[in-house]
């Protein structure tokens, strides 16, 4: 067997042999296929990168057909059950599990960088009363680059490390403050005696009490949700981080771009859309009519389907378990019944079966977030906090990858050519 592809160009009859490495050909190798020397070489057309690898990566492995997700080789199920978010963050960033000393040092560093410059608070307070927290988060993460101008020295490993620590540490602070903002409540400073998710809950919900004591089951469920969202290889927001990062900008600006991508309803905004959909359906009797509408193409069943998973999203299974833990504390969310029935019907329906549409991570996460009394606008902020170590691990891999270049896709130009410009005063005469 030869690891190559023989291509015959029927326009010219010429044959080319293109090497196959790791199941891919280099798109640039197609450039030699031309009808004449002065003609452009053959290119591929791939909107949405559905079959184009943009990098080599050793961070996250997904087998969408089998429903497998692994971070640095460790199955998501084991990490969700036995690890915690900061250990998973360490694993993603460093590539390996920490020793006890490394873990303690890492947790210490993250815990002691949770405070932000007081001026950050000042400008966050300047947002309109009804500002979307994702807009606030995106802007404030971008603004951090102005507080840490040395973050531009991305070639310096120590400098990269401190910015990574800062971002993982400060994200809950910024996320919680954007939540408090909409409620007109004072921003709560971090409490460095608390764990990562307990501290986040404290900054979200603390009022006049001296110390906020989160229910450990809620803190644990939130930690698991962060783990489940921590990375997902080359998804839209990670691609945004890598694409922007490929210009060698500082990591705050690159992550701010990722937050922007995550904001969209087809990506991180889907759990908000799921909840709105469940509310609209309201009760089990309305499900058949709704499903008919989806099948007629009038709308989508939000929280179903995935570009990569053509099987049950492994994260959705773990979230279902977290639902039970959270509802034990908060009482059952009445929309759970609608969601479960919707899932049951969809999994048996020919339309969904044929297209391999299964529940994804967003299908149940919104129900948990709502039970925790988060308004839907906050759901994507929670996703962003969880995804931060993944974005940063991917950014770190990018900036150290000698193969990488500034992202600059090709286009197929379809517009007009060589028109003669007529000045406005003549056109409008
Ligand atoms: C996630 C998503 C954007 C992936 O899209 P994609 O890989 O581009 O898949 P396509 O849009 O090409 O869908 C393939 C087919 O399944 C259908 N389909 C995909 N997701 C669907 C959904 N949620 N409800 C109904 N039909 C759906 C499409 O209409 C298409 O059908 P067709 O072949 O008859 O045209 C898409 O499944 C979706 O919009 N899901 C809902 C939003 C969501 O939950 N996003 C969160 C992802 S974590």
Low-confidence stretches: none
Rg calculated over all Cα atoms: 24 Å
The ordered string of helix (H) and strand (E) elements is EEEEEHHHHHHHHHHHHHHHHHH
Examine the coordinates and then state which fold CATH places here, giving the name of the CATH topology: Citrate Synthase, domain 1
Which ligands occur here?
A: coenzyme A
CATH architectural arrangement: Orthogonal Bundle
According to CATH, the homologous superfamily is Citrate Synthase, domain 1
Proportion in helices: 40-55%
CATH class: Mainly Alpha
Structural class: mainly alpha
**Proportion of residues in β-strands:** under 5%
**Ends: how far apart?**
71 Å
Record the strand order, biggest sheet: 3-4-5
- Give the overall shape, derived from the CA principal axes: globular
Major β-sheet, in short? 3 strands, antiparallel
Counted by DSSP, the helix tally is 18
Report mean pLDDT, rounded to a whole number: 95
The oligomerization state is single chain
- Whole-number tally of structural domains: 1
Number of DSSP strand runs? 5
Pathway: Carbohydrate metabolism; tricarboxylic acid cycle; isocitrate from oxaloacetate: step 1/2
Catalytic activity: oxaloacetate + acetyl-CoA + H2O = citrate + CoA + H(+)
Keywords: Acyltransferase, Transferase, Tricarboxylic acid cycle
InterPro entries: Citrate_synth-like_lrg_a-sub (IPR016142), Citrate_synth-like_sm_a-sub (IPR016143), Citrate_synthase (IPR002020), Citrate_synthase_AS (IPR019810), Citrate_synthase_bac-typ (IPR024176), Citrate_synthase_sf (IPR036969), Citrate_synthase_typ-I (IPR010953)
């Amino acid at each position: 067997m030869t690891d190559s592809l023989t291509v015959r160009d029927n326009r010219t009859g010429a044959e080319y042999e293109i090497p196959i490495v790791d199941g891919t050909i280099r798109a640039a190798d197609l450039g030699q296929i031309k009808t004449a020397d002065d003609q452009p070489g053959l290119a591929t057309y791939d909107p949405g990168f559905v079959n184009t690898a943009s990098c080599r990566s050793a961070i996250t492995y997904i087998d969408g057909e089998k429903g497998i997700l692994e971070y640095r080789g460790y199955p998501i199920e084991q990490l969700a059950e036995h690890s915690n978010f900061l250990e998973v963050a360490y694993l993603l960033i460093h590539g390996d599990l920490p020793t006890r000393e490394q873990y303690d040092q890492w947790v210490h560093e993250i815990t002691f960088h949770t405070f932000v410059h007081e001026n950050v608070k000042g400008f966050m307070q300047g947002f309109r009363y009804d500002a979307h927290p994702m807009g606030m988060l995106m802007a404030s993460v971008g603004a951090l680059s102005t507080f840490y101008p040395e973050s531009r020295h991305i070639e310096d490993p120590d400098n990269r490390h401190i910015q990574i620590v800062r971002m993982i540490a400060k994200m809950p602070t910024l996320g919680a403050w954007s939540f408090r903002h909409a409620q007109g409540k004072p921003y709560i400073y971090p409490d460095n005696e608390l764990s990562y998710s307990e501290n986040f809950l404290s900054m979200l919900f603390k009022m006049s009490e001296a110390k906020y004591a989160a229910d450990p089951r809620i803190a644990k469920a939130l930690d698991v949700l962060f783990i489940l969202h921590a990375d997902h290889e080359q998804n839209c927001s990670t691609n945004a981080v890598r694409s922007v990062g490929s210009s060698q900008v500082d990591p705050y600006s690159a992550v701010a771009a990722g937050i922007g991508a995550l904001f969209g309803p087809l990506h991180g905004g889907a759990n908000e859309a799921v909840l709105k959909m469940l509310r609209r359906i309201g009760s089990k009797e309305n499900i058949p009519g709704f499903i008919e509408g989806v099948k007629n193409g009038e709308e989508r069943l939000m929280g179903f389907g995935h570009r990569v998973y053509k099987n049950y999203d492994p994260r959705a299974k773990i979230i279902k378990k977290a639902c039970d833990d959270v509802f034990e504390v908060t009482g059952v969310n009445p929309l759970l019944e609608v969601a479960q029935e919707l899932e049951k019907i969809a999994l048996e329906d020919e339309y969904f079966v044929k297209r391999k549409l299964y529940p994804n991570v967003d299908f149940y996460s919104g129900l948990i977030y709502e039970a925790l009394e988060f308004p839907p606008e906050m759901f994507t902020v929670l996703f962003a906090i969880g995804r931060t170590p993944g974005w940063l691990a991917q950014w770190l891999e990018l900036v150290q990858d000698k193969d990488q270049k500034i992202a600059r896709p090709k286009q197929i130009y379809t517009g007009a050519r060589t028109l003669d410009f007529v000045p406005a005063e003549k056109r409008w005469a």
